[in-house]
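Entry type: protein chain
Record version: 2
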Amino acid sequence: MRHRTIVRAYLALGLAGWLMLLVGCGDDQSSDGATAGQTVANKSPATKQTPTALLEKPPKDKPPPKPKEKVAIPLPEDEDLPPAVMPKVVMSAEHAKACLVKVGQAMPEISLTTVSLTTGAGTQQPLSALYGKKATVVFFWDSTSIYSQQELRDLDRDVLRRYGSRGVAVVGVNVGQSSEEAQRAISAAGAKFPQRFDPHGTALAKIATKRLPRTYLLDAKGNIVWLDNEYSTFTRRELRMAVRAVLGQ
């Protein structure tokens, strides 16, 4: 009897040990499984994050602003002006000394070179062959002067377009430059009136000693009725006034 009791006790203790062992193994496996899961999770590849700077498109270079075209100040229409009076020519003693011909005198007979745009050949022609029926504007210039360049642009719209049909002619005389240099300036200005050339300055030497541009207004007989040895807004206004006075407007 006692022997059976001892055996039963040993069996109970063994069963309890096995149960404890099983519980411990289960905990270890759960712990190992969790650790393994965490390890796998930690080893899973992280999502690559692309820097925002790489996703943004680089800004395109903005083109430089186009330069504004130079717009000439419009002159009032003839009907908006009072009757014209021939403006008086006033200049300093130094400028007057440089003028070899003055108001009231006839424009000297001068010969100028005309250049063919197709062949480049030049021939001589008297300035008087280009005179208008009622008046003529003679404009001596060179392309190195910004005032000459401006007057090249203005004479077309200020004089030729307004008064060309009324017998007023405009003649440009380039002084001291090659015909190629002069033609580039003429094309850039869009000047449409006749151009002649004085490459050695021999024609200008009969009229003045220096200073360009020079503008002369001649009447129907070729006499100088107005002149200016510079170019400005004041010159532009007075030239138009002088032309209107010659036409009797």
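Comment: Confidence is low (pLDDT under 50) at residues 25-47.
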